[in-house]
Design goal:
This protein is of the alpha+beta class. The chain has two domains: 3-78, Roll (Ubiquitin-like (UB roll)), CATH 3.10.20.30; 87-152, [2Fe-2S]-binding domain (DNA polymerase, domain 1), CATH 1.10.150. The protein has five helices and five strands. Strand 1 (3-9) and strand 2 form a beta hairpin. Helix 2 (87-95) crosses helix 5 (141-152). The structure holds FE2/S2 (inorganic) cluster (2 copies). One FE2/S2 (inorganic) cluster is lined by residues 98-104, 135-138.
């Protein structure tokens, strides 16, 4: 039986009736129409569904929506400010790190958490930070370039 829960997503509060088994990913995509968060493996193996939960990068396919109550949820749609893309989004474009784009929002959200604490990360540190996010297109080189660019541009 569905239960009404309250979620704070990108600064907006939503009351939504969900099944207790609904994942955060399902609710974001199917109830809130936030399609930037991608669904791929649905099993915690690819990182496409990464969002921030109180600033921590999590796989939203592995989080029950009910357990995300009372936490601040940030999706890729929540990154632009005042009509401007987040510096990480800009850097991904500038570096040519977006090909099919399916992994991109998850990559950016993982990098977003990483750059809150990493000031001048090395390439191996960047690679470690995105090691939970798979990309089938770029070979990761341009992804690392983008994250380094974003870090150095702060
Ligand atoms: S869809 Fe969540 S980790 Fe792959
Ligand atoms: S850009 Fe296609 S999977 Fe990463």
């Amino acid at each position: 039986m569905k239960q009404v829960i309250a979620l704070e997503v990108n600064g907006e509060r939503h009351e939504i009736a969900v099944q207790p088994s609904a994942t955060l990913l399902q609710v974001l995509r199917e109830e809130l129409d936030l399609l930037g968060t991608k669904q791929a493996c649905d099993a915690g193996g690819c990182g496409c569904c990464t969002v921030l939960l109180d600033g921590r990068a999590v796989y939203s396919c592995m989080v029950f929506a009910m357990s995300a109550q009372d936490k601040k949820i940030t999706t890729i749609e929540g990154l632009p400010k005042d009509g401007k893309l987040d510096p990480l989004q800009e850097a991904f474009i500038q570096a040519g790190a977006v090909q099919c784009g399916y992994c991109t929002s998850g990559m950016i959200m993982a990098a977003k958490e990483f750059l809150t604490s990493a000031r001048a990360p090395s390439d191996p540190e960047i690679r470690q930070a995105i090691s939970g996010n798979l990309c089938r297109c770029t070979g990761y080189h341009k992804t690392v370039d983008a994250i380094r660019m974003a870090a150095s541009g702060r």
